Amino acid sequence: MTCSTYRGRFAPSPTGPLHAGSLVAALASWLDARAHHGTWLVRIEDIDPPRCPSGADQLILAQLAQCGLHPDEPVVWQSQRHSYYAQALQQLQAQQLAYPCGCTRKDIEAALQAMGQVHARHIERPYPGTCRGGLHGKPARSWRFALEKYVSNWPQTLATQAQAAPFSLEKGILTWEDRRLGPQHQAPTLVAGDFVLQRADGLYAYQLAVVVDDALQGITHIVRGEDLTVNTARQLLLQHALGLAHPAYMHTPLVLMPDGEKLSKQHGAPALDLSHPLQTLNTAARILHLTTLSPETTVSDALSQWVKQWQATYNVRRD
């Protein structure tokens, strides 16, 4: 499908240099934008400054440039956009869709254990709703999105909002379409519960920031790693609550380590070796099921060839 107003983005967190997995996401989002004759943006998601070492953002931008991936508009930094996140939080508060929470992590863990929930590795644990009915004398630490309330009131909410939703929500199960993975289903109240919008340290949470920024930048298509699929249901509902447009989503294959774990900075993923950019890009292209090109190919020519392959693979028509 061709989109004349296509706007895509790559949004890395500058907690270190790009690695093989993040290059796959960057290349996929760039190729999709070019295949649609669209605009490709880069947004630095430094919403959590304590985790972002000085200079990591500039290193990422330099790595992208070495790979021939240049944004079409000036780069945006989330750390400079707090006023927008504050406005969105205020809107949700006015709609009674955000409430203060006084729970510490220890409190949440104790509540979940009391409910008989055992902590499974790598599985997100839903908020037990302790402060949903009030703080009960505890000081406010954070703000949460009233997801349980929003989902419970969905039939009435949908009836009173003119905005169309590219998803369905029935009996607590949200269903949407992923361009690569096909139909997706999630019960967001069971996966995450009432998730955090603003943290105890005053910083805004990823889910709120990414939704606000995608809307402000007019993002129409989101192409990102498959590990982020789990966030999509929350983001769709938050977009709907704020009256924002819904981008189309596509989640790409992950680079896995020998033990099957996702390659990540957390697991010690090495920085990209860009002494031979085409060789590194070829590795990313293989993950995306694109043809590996000969060493004599220039980076520019390789990217052009991959755009054509991407158009054929994902049925992107040229006008």
TrEMBL record:
- A single Pfam family, by name? tRNA-synt_1c
* NCBIfam families per UniProt: PRK05710.1-2, PRK05710.1-3, PRK05710.1-4, queuosine_YadB
> What protein family does this chain belong to?
Belongs to the class-I aminoacyl-tRNA synthetase family. GluQ subfamily.
Instruction: Output this protein's name.
Output: Glutamyl-Q tRNA(Asp) synthetase
Purpose of the protein: Catalyzes the tRNA-independent activation of glutamate in presence of ATP and the subsequent transfer of glutamate onto a tRNA(Asp). Glutamate is transferred on the 2-amino-5-(4,5-dihydroxy-2-cyclopenten-1-yl) moiety of the queuosine in the wobble position of the QUC anticodon.
Paste the cofactor note: Binds 1 zinc ion per subunit.
Instruction: List UniProt keywords, sorted A-Z.
Output: Aminoacyl-tRNA synthetase, ATP-binding, Ligase, Metal-binding, Nucleotide-binding, Protein biosynthesis, Zinc
Q: What does this protein need as cofactor?
A: Zn(2+)
Record-linked InterPro entries: Glu-Q_tRNA(Asp)_Synthase, Glu/Gln-tRNA-synth, Glu/Gln-tRNA-synth_Ib_cat-dom, GluQ/Sye, Rossmann-like_a/b/a_fold
- EC number(s) per entry: 6.1.1.-
- The answer to whether keyword Zinc applies is yes
Which residues does the annotation say bind ATP?
A: K265
